[in-house]
Amino acid sequence: MTPRIPFNHPTLIGNEAAYVAQALASGHISGDGAFTKRCHALLERTLGASRVLLTSSCTHALEMAALLLDLQPGDEVIVPSFTFVSTVNAFVLRGARPVFVDIRSDTLNLDERQLERALSSRTRAIVVVHYAGIACEMDTISALAARHGIPIVEDNAHGLFGRYRGRWLGTLGSLATLSFHETKNYTCGEGGALVVNDPHLVARAEVLREKGTNRSRFFRGEVDKYTWVDLGSSYLPSDLSAAMLLGQLEEQDHVQARRKELFDRYMEGLWDWAHTSGVGLPQIPPECTPAYHLFYVRLPDEAMRSRFIRWLDSQGVHSVFHYVPLHTSPMGRRYGYAAGDLPMTEAVSDQLARLPFFFGLSRAQQDRVIRAAVSFPMNAA
Ligand SMILES: *Cc1c(COP(=O)(O)O)cnc(C)c1O
Q1: Could you say which of 30, 76, 158, 208 has the lowest number of CB atoms within 10 Å?
Q2: What pLDDT digit, counting tens, does each position of 96-152 carry?
Q3: What's the whole-model pTM score?
């Protein structure tokens, strides 16, 4: 039997193992060692951000963002419902109330035309997710946020090295977060980063990440002892994680080129089938250069989507769906939301199937996925 094609397999590409061995040999394996510094420098230099700080996860970076924005109980945060739970939970943890906005049917990103009416005098942040690594309509969103003096946080878990009008995703909000979870484009197992674009937030971000102490300033020789100065927690990853991550980040061009190739091959291989079967494919607005995080198809309805996933499974291909809308979840309902409130989010959540999409997916494997998809019996009972 031919082996099954997994949905995901973590990227392994360059010097990861050699760097981890170096970190072990160096005797410094706790946070903020040599490899963490190299990851910070690489990301700051590439993105042109004021500061990049590795964290133990994107979830933790989002929690840091909520702390940095000083969110208080009763504050409102505008968020998509079509996203991973941490995008919202990080703010809910501070007592903020999520105000869910529906998504666009083309990019599946926050629908900027619906933002204005979600605003209130209590709105403290707009959180955007560049779904699949394709940018939100940031010109419109940024102009609206600036007009009302509301900071933007980019949950850029999907979008590292994607661009919007030539600018890097993750540099368009006051703060942005990255994920290096094993399912993401670059990984160290579990990991993340906070990208600080607003220079006024840099000093406090360092303190929050270092248990509320000014340890970073101490190590730079700016103060002669370090002490407790603010709220904080332990958000820094071990240098072993950073060592693995550096091995991947250094291969940025290679990773992005490979993922673009996989994306383009899916588009080409599925195009005719999709257009004759009423199946939707990803749409890329001309101002967006994707980060190529994932590949999805949109079936006409939920029953067909379930049948499609089962069909692929029978052909040895593992495909998955996501996201279960947050506004109709038990927590979402506690905030007064109900099914029917965000029709596009609910429809997309029912229709979407994600195909295997990872760095090590071979052409032969991808061809098998494409053959399995285009032979799906659309009309079977
Ligand atoms: C993966 C993901 C996260 C969480 O990342 P972790 O590093 O696992 O905490 C947050 N938001 C989005 C949109 C994600 O896809």
Answers
A1: 30
A2: 999 999 999 999 999 999 999 999 999 999 999 999 999 999 999 999 999 999 999
A3: 0.97
> Could you tell me the distance, in angstroms and rounded to a whole number, from the CA of residue 182 to the centre of ligand 1?
10
Residue 37 falls in the annotated catalytic set: no
Pocket test for ligand 1, best of 86, 127, 156, 158 (most atoms within 8 A of CB): 86
Q: Which helix (H) or strand (E) holds 334?
A: helix 330-334
Per-residue model confidence (pLDDT) at position 1: 63
Contacts 24+ apart (CB under 8 A), 117-120: 118/78, 119/78, 119/144, 119/148, 119/150, 120/76
CA dihedral 108, 63, 85, 101 (to 10 degrees): -40
Q: Which amino acid is at 261?
A: E
- Ligand 1 neighbourhood includes 157 CB (under 6 angstroms): yes
Cα(58) to centroid(ligand 1), Å: 5
Which ligand 1 atom lies nearest to the CA of residue 191? 7
Q: Is 87 in the pocket of ligand 1 (CB under 6 A)?
A: yes
Ligand 1, residue 184: give the atom nearest the CA.
1
Pocket test for ligand 1, best of 88, 89, 92, 155 (most atoms within 8 A of CB): 155
Q: 80 forms bridges with which residues in the sheet?
A: 101
**What does CATH list as the number for 16-249?**
3.40.640.10
pLDDT per residue as tens digits for the range 239-267: 999 999 999 999 999 999 999 999 999 99
Q: Could you tell me the CA-to-CA distances from 257 to 209, 246, 291, 292 in Å, in that order?
A: 33, 18, 10, 9
User: So what's the architecture of 252-319+355-374 in CATH?
Assistant: Alpha-Beta Complex (3.90)
Of the candidates 184, 211, 225, 260, the residue annotated as catalytic is 184
Q: Is the CB of 58 under 6 A from ligand 1?
A: yes
Q: Which amino acid is at 160?
A: L
Give the domain ranges of the chain. 16-249, 252-319+355-374
Contact between 39 and 249 (Cβ < 8 Å): yes
